[in-house]
């Protein structure tokens, strides 16, 4: 059963994508770890899985792109409204254990990675190189514009690319894999974290594995239909993986084979 | 416990007494009965409701009742339903949401007590199926508490198989025809020159106390021997077999097999196999709002992996083709179920074969996959 959360703030990130800051009406859910997801309910419309894009004490941040009935209803939420939240569910991003950290995000895939990036730059001194590679379709679709400068100032190498540039765009153009050459990391001691469209995840993970990052240390966050979050509805299967339990964050060592089979 | 019998013999009237004893204990007794040309599972009010003298004739895509001269009550194999109809019902309200004039939401869950079922006539394959659904719905980090309360309050009277159907393959799946663990009482039906009777064994204290309560006599060596040989003989009369290979490895290794195209050309993706399967557990969530617009209910209902909507994502369905949907069902049932839940998801009951409108046979598909794999494997690996 969901727990009511009040919307403290609803801010438009990009057209059709909003970031919601939520605070529990009464009792908070257990703390979420970066990478874990919540089932978020809009009254009467239903619920859908969203990896949290931020957590601060009892507060939760969600970044929602309007795509289906539930996400459209959530994207219409305004400050003062109430939503229902269940969770935390699934696996999170492991704390990086190696020297270098490489984060690769495509589109809305930056949302689940945001808490990991924030945690990593907050403990910047623990790591060698920290690179954050971000791809988006258009400059206007880049998430968290206001924060990226802060990540750079904290010592992360943040590279941004878009598919379709607009006048005045000074950064890269093209797919996010193009940025890998300019990221600085020693594959043998790198923890990589990848989220975005499935085709992008596949290309990036294969490329990283090809460059020598161990498959166990490449983590990807995957998306499937989910109705329960608790391992009972059966929708989120990807071959042997029940993604609401074994995922959404999975190592490339486990995801590589099922992701290589069409329509699995 | 010393005075309570662990095994005994009861007559046909003993079954009636058993049903009445279970009812007297406040249990809803559910078991096989003939209705609409099939042996269905329904509430029983007495022994006369049992399908005495009815057998079934099964084939791929075919189910017919046939009369039997011996008057046996349990000489039929799996019917269209399974016990999940009661333990994991087709539709269930999960919670309700109410919105007040300020837009604040409250959620509530009604605490209706679970019915106290007694299932009479649980086949060994279905006994295993119940254990498999237990693992899925209550064995993980999150449990389905409604399922658990129904399950914990259910009493299971197993009946061993002495008349397997032409679509049965429990021997291949290691689930029958003898009853495995999990029953409160296990019955074996014997009809011979010495009469119509049932060898009864108690698996739990409650089973033993029930047995003590109904008319019974000491289990005689003749009945014991007849029961044992009937079950042993049943094992030799399976209508179907699975290929004698590691099915999990077979499924993992044949994801790109051509056979999936072949079966996809026959499969109607109707989902009948998933509805009749005693272990298929998938569900979908439905939200229903009343006319006030301020009261909404979350319902959970059975869903099939054959539905196109099942894998709906913003970019479209993941499994868009019948090929991928049949493959998902079969490889989950026989292969990835091990990865997810530690066992096979198939118990060899044969329902999916019988109730497939085009007669697709999962054992035939597994044999074909094994042949295709072997044909492509180098000789030394065979």
UniProtKB/TrEMBL annotation, chain A:
Listed transmembrane segments: none
SUPFAM superfamilies hit by this protein: Ferredoxin reductase-like, C-terminal NADP-linked domain, Riboflavin synthase domain-like
Domain spans labelled FAD-binding FR-type: 1-95
Coiled coil segments of this chain: none
Highest taxon of the lineage: Bacteria
InterPro entries: Cyt_c3_hydrogenase_gsu (IPR012165), Dihydroorotate_DH_Fe-S-bd (IPR019480), FAD-bd_FR_type (IPR017927), FNR_nucleotide-bd (IPR039261), OxRdtase_FAD/NAD-bd (IPR001433), PyrK_electron_transfer (IPR050353), Riboflavin_synthase-like_b-brl (IPR017938)
Descriptive protein name: FAD/NAD(P)-binding protein
Lineage, opening ranks: Bacteria, Bacillati, Actinomycetota, Actinomycetes, Kitasatosporales
TrEMBL record, chain B:
Domain 4Fe-4S ferredoxin-type: 256-288, 337-365
Record key words, sorted: Iron, Iron-sulfur, Metal-binding
InterPro entries: 4Fe4S_Fe-S-bd, 4Fe4S_Fe_S_CS
Entry-linked PROSITE patterns: 4FE4S_FER_1, 4FE4S_FER_2
Protein name: 4Fe-4S dicluster domain-containing protein
Upper lineage: Bacteria, Bacillati, Actinomycetota, Actinomycetes, Kitasatosporales
């Amino acid at each position: 059963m969901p727990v009511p959360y009040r919307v403290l703030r609803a801010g438009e990130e990009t057209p059709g994508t909003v970031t919601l800051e939520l605070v529990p009406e009464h009792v908070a859910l257990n703390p979420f770890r970066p990478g874990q997801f919540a089932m978020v309910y809009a009254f009467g419309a239903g619920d859908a899985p969203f990896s949290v894009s931020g957590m601060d004490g009892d507060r939760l941040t969600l970044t929602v792109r309007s795509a289906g009935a539930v996400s459209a209803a959530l994207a219409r939420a305004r400050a003062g409204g109430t939503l229902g939240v269940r969770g935390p569910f699934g696996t999170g991003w492991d704390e990086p254990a190696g020297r270098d950290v490489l984060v690769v995000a495509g589109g809305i895939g930056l949302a689940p990675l945001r808490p990991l990036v924030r945690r990593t730059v907050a403990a910047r001194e623990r790591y060698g190189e920290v690179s954050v590679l971000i791809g988006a379709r258009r400059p206007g679709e880049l998430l968290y514009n206001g924060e990226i400068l802060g990540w750079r100032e904290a010592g992360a190498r943040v590279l941004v690319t878009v598919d379709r540039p607009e006048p005045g765009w000074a950064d890269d153009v093209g797919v996010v894999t193009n940025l890998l050459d300019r990221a600085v990391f020693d594959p043998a001691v790198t923890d990589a974290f990848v989220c975005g469209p499935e085709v992008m995840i596949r290309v990036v993970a294969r490329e990283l594995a090809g460059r020598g990052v161990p498959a166990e240390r490449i983590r990807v966050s995957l998306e499937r239909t989910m109705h329960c979050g608790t391992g009972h509805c059966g929708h989120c299967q990807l071959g042997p993986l029940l993604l609401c339990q074994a995922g959404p964050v999975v190592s490339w060592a486990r995801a590589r084979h099922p992701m290589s089979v069409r329509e699995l | 416990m010393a005075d309570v019998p662990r095994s005994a013999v009861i007559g046909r009237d003993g079954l009636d007494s058993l049903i009445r004893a279970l009812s007297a204990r406040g249990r809803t007794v559910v078991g096989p009965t003939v209705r609409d040309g099939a042996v269905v599972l329904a509430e029983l009010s007495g022994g006369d409701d049992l399908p005495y003298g009815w057998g079934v004739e099964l084939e791929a895509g075919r189910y017919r009742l046939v009369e039997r001269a011996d008057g046996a009550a349990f000489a039929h194999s799996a019917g269209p339903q399974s016990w999940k109809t009661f333990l994991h019902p087709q539709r269930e309200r999960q919670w309700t949401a109410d919105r007040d004039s300020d837009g604040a939401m409250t959620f509530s869950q009604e605490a209706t007590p679970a019915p106290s079922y007694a299932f009479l006539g649980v086949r060994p394959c279905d006994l295993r199926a119940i254990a498999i659904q237990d693992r899925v719905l209550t064995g993980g980090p999150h449990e389905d508490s409604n399922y658990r309360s129904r399950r914990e309050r259910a009493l299971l009277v197993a009946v061993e198989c002495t008349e397997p159907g032409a679509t049965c393959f429990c021997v291949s799946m290691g689930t029958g025809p003898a009853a495995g663990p999990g029953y409160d009482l296990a019955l074996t039906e014997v009809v011979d020159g010495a009469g119509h009777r049932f060898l009864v064994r108690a698996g739990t204290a409650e089973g033993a106390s029930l047995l003590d309560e109904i008319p019974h006599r000491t289990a005689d060596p003749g009945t014991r021997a007849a029961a044992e040989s009937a079950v042993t003989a049943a094992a030799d009369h399976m209508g179907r077999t699975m290929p004698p290979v590691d099915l999990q490895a077979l499924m993992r290794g044949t994801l790109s097999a051509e056979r999936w195209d072949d079966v996809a050309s026959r499969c109607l993706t109707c989902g009948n196999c998933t509805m009749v399967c005693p272990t298929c557990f998938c569900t979908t969530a439905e939200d229903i709002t009343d006319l006030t617009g301020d009261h909404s209910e979350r319902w959970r209902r059975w869903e099939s992996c054959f539905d196109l909507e099942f894998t709906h994502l913003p970019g479209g369905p993941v499994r868009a083709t019948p090929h991928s949907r049949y493959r998902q069902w079969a490889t989950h049932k026989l292969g990835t179920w091990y990865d997810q839940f530690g066992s096979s998801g198939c118990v060899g009951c044969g329902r999916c074969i019988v109730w497939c409108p085009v007669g697709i046979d999962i054992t035939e598909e597994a044999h074909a996959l094994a042949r295709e794999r072997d044909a492509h494997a180098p000789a030394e690996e065979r």
